[in-house]
Write a structure and sequence with these properties.
Layout (H helix, E strand, L loop, with lengths): L1 H19 L8 H21 L9 H31 L5 E4 L2 E4 H38 L3
Antiparallel strand pairs: 1-2
Helix pairs in contact: 1-4, 2-3, 2-4, 3-4
Length: 145
């Protein structure tokens, strides 16, 4: 829960920064990022379901790997749903200004999408680390001492 609050605060602070300095995205920026996220989602999700765990003989390690894969898959789905909702709400625009601080919906939607792309990349790296860990464990179990 703490991580979620920190991430939301980060997105809001970056949005305020972008809005305050007048950094506004182009009109199709959010939909372009959504297309990129859609491609990333389909590739990464298919990678996550194509793990071959057949050669793992240690039941505890097998369960741990499965749980990590399920966790990453859930993250992919949550991020894709968040991206879809962001695209859905992008037509609702609003802005708020107080003295030199601004907050615009265009900046918010763009920062959310950039944040989601970043987290897809992070989870891809986590998936790669898991694959390496599985490979190392299989090699260790199948190689004679």
């Amino acid at each position: 829960m703490k991580k979620i609050i920190i991430r939301i605060m980060f997105v809001l602070l970056v949005t305020i920064l972008f809005s305050s300095i007048g950094l506004e995205p182009k009109e199709k920026f959010v939909t372009t990022l959504y297309t990129v996220i859609g491609i990333i989602f389909s590739i990464l999700f298919s990678l996550s379901i194509s793990f071959n765990l057949d050669k793992i003989t240690n039941k505890n390690f097998l369960n741990k790997c499965r749980n990590e894969i399920y966790y990453v898959q859930r993250q992919f789905i949550v991020y894709f749903v968040a991206a879809t909702l962001t695209v859905f709400f992008q037509d609702y625009s609003f802005s708020y200004s107080y003295k030199f601080i601004s907050f615009t919906s265009k900046s918010l939607y763009s920062v959310i999408m950039l944040f989601l792309v970043f987290y897809f990349i992070i989870n891809f790296k986590n998936l790669q680390k898991l694959k390496d860990k599985i490979t190392d464990k299989i090699i260790k179990e199948t190689t004679p001492c």
